[in-house]
Amino acid sequence: MTPLQLLNIWTPYEAANVIIWLSLIILLLYLAKNPAHKTIRSLCHMISQGLEHMAVSVLAAEKKIQERNKEVLLTEGLVAVEKNIEREFHRVNTVVERDLSGFPVLKRQLLEQIARIEDDYQQSSEIPPSPPEWVEAVESLAKLPNDSNENKAVTNILREIHKTTCSQHKGAMDEYRKAVGIHHAALNNLMPYWRKLTQTLDDVGKIITGLHGRSVKIDQHMGEYEAIRARSNRAERALSSSSMTQFFISGLALAIAIWGIIINFNLIALPMSEMVGGNSYIGSMKTSDVVALVIILVEVAIGLYLMESLMITRLFPVIRQMDDKMRVRMIWLTFFFLLTLAGVEASLALMRERIALNDEALKQILSGNEVLHPTSTLIPTLGQMVLSFILPFVLTLTAIPLETFVHASRTVLGVLTAFSMRFTAFALTLSGKIISNSGEFLISVYDLIIFPPLWFEDLLFTRFKKNTYPMPLSDNELPDAMVPNDDSDLDESDTDDEIPTFTPREVTQ
Amino acid sequence: MKMPRYVLSLIILSALTWGCADTTSHSRAVYMLMDTSGTYSQQLDQAKTIINKLLISLQSGESLAVARIDSGSFSEKDIVAKVTFDQRPSVANQQKLKFKESIDMFIGGVRGSAHTDIKGAILQAVDYLDETQAAHKYIMIFSDLEEDLADGHIRNLDRITLDLTGYRVVALNVTKLGLDQVDPKRYYDRLDAWARIVKDRGGIWIKLNDIARLDRLLKPET
Q1: ipTM of the complex
Q2: Which residue of A306, A367, A393, B175 has the smallest Cβ count within 10 Å?
Q3: Is the pTM of this model over 0.90?
Q4: Contact yes or no for B32/B217 (Cβ under 8 A)
């Protein structure tokens, strides 16, 4: 029986059949009203409860992820600060070893310089010989009158004495000036020692100031270390922010490196077709392109090993754990490979230029144009060769942003995962609430569909109520049979269909 | 005897590489038919330009053959030049130059044929192109498409199994004949008849009068 035949089983008129079917359906729905309401309510309740449980589980998982993120972030922060402190101590050690290891020598030099200064000072401070006291006697003799003839002999004697005394005085003054000159020269010799002493003390002062600066930095790092150890929120926020910044900066550096790889690829892809053939494919890519790409990626990988061997990055613990001799061998080996590949790339660049020229010449011949020979291809060829040689070494440095990116992406991915889980939990809770409330809405829609019997029922009840109780009666005056149940209070909000249900009260008396 | 470990590794690596290699052909093969009959032989200079364009467009590993359409074209003798370009681009360039010389020599000394056997030439083209096992096969017909068979030649394609699936048949430089000026319908009927022959046998029919669009038509597909 087709649906159309089923529709028309009552009468030959389609419209009448539709009305009959609708009436039947409405009647059935009216009869099934209470169980249907209960089913809708319980279904919505069940779904909303399920969603809320899911939201709680997701939130719990999100909390765990956040804790794990925090753990990772703080651990990485601790390692970073430890590295910083280690570096600062290493610098302090270098300063101490380089400058302060010579402190005993410096001290000896200072003592020697001070001793010399003291000696010179002592020499310069000696009192020069004073003129003899008999000079006053000579001056007295010189003042005696010498014009009398009787004292002529005495006068002559005194003149001679005066003369001798003057010459001796002059000699004594010369000696005095000489001694003063020597003392001044000694003081003059003192100056360089003073200057040297000042310079030495300045140097020591600078070293001490540098050490003080380092100690301030170490204090700062120690503060950060303690904050991280204390698992403070401030430290976590700072580390998270730093991690995000590093993620974006290293991402930018990697994007630049990828462009470098593309340029390098374009430089060697064409000549590679001369080596491996121009018409074989791996997947949907030309074999020559794949080979060119593999060579570049091998260069990048070798660069990673080189940077690891140089202990600049920390991506491969195996390399770091090698003994120093083996590590140095690794450095030379990777450098040799890199150099060889760079040489290969440079020669490929040369080949590329020649192939390009040949292709151009062929195209000109086939186009019927006169073949134009370029005046000089030396500069572009050299440029390509140099670029091809340098790019592998430049790509080696990709290891540094790559390491940062890997470490930072762990944190960023964790944050993003936590955020998405929080959002999922919110969406689940919201959906639960919506479904919970939609139960009432569906019940209203259900009642709207069966409104004719409901309206009729309401009409009947109102009429019955009016006929039976023309005046409002108190509960005491109502007959037992029509007293509403205690548990079915007449409050409209508590009923399904806003019509109180009456059941015969059990007559106990 | 125990096999050394490195030999075993090499064998496994080779097997993996072989397994990864793409066995699908990406190459193209072009078979160009040049009508040398009557007055159309005067158009052959334009055919030379088209062949040169084909030489520029085709790459290593791809094939090109040029054949003439004469009174009885279902013959290998009508192939003027054919080549499958070497895998190395530099060698392929040398081959292209030699191919060009062959074509120049042929066009310089060509004599017009009395009749035009286009269907025979197409059968010969399909024979050649099937052997190349190329992924993209093109038959380029440089002709006015007016077939004029010699007495006794039978070219009823309904009697022959001709499968053109995967073929692109390109009609180049289809000139209007004197009678086409009188009744253009004759020209369009001629084109429709050829298009039907190709499409009924699974091929793709393309009419191309602007040679500049040839590059776009032959754009390498991966």
Answers
A1: 0.74
A2: A367
A3: no
A4: no
Of the candidates B20, B89, B97, which has its C-beta nearest A273's C-beta? B89
Contacts of B26 in chain A (CB under 8 A): 279, 281
What tens digit of pLDDT does each residue of A454-503 get? 898 888 888 887 776 555 555 555 555 444 444 444 444 444 444 444 44
Of residues B20, B60, B97, nearest to A282 (C-beta): B20
| CA gyration radius, chain A | 54
DSSP A370-434: PPPPPS--HHHHHHHHHHHHHHHHHHHTTHHHHHHHHHHHHHHHHHHHHHHHHHHHHHHHHHHHH
Q: Cβ of B89 and A274 within 8 Å? A: yes
Tens of pLDDT, residue by residue over A30-78, are: 999 999 999 999 999 999 999 999 999 999 999 999 888 888 888 888 8
Contact B26 A283 (CB under 8 A): no
Tokens of residue B126, six digits: 């399909």
Distance from CA of A301 to the nearest CA of B (A): 20
Distance in angstroms (rounded) separating the CA atoms of residues B84 and B95: 9
For residue B116, give the DSSP letter. Answer: B
Q: What pLDDT, in 10s, does the model give residues A266-285?
A: 889 888 888 888 777 888 88
Distance CA A292, CA A271 (A): 9
- Is A369 an 8 Å CB contact of chain B? no
Instruction: Report in angstroms the alpha-carbon separations of B199 from A284, B158, B170, B196.
Output: 29, 14, 12, 5
Q: Say how many domains are in chain B.
A: 1
Quote the domain boundaries for residue B194: 5-19+27-218
Cα A181 to its chain centre, rounded Å, is: 72
What CATH number corresponds to the domain at position B199?
A: 3.40.50.410
B100 contact A CB<8A: yes
pLDDT given at position B203: 92
Joined together, the tokens standing for residue A473 give 């009666």
| Least Cα separation, residue A278 to chain B (angstroms) | 5
The pLDDT mean for chain A works out to 81
More confident position, B5 or B156: B156
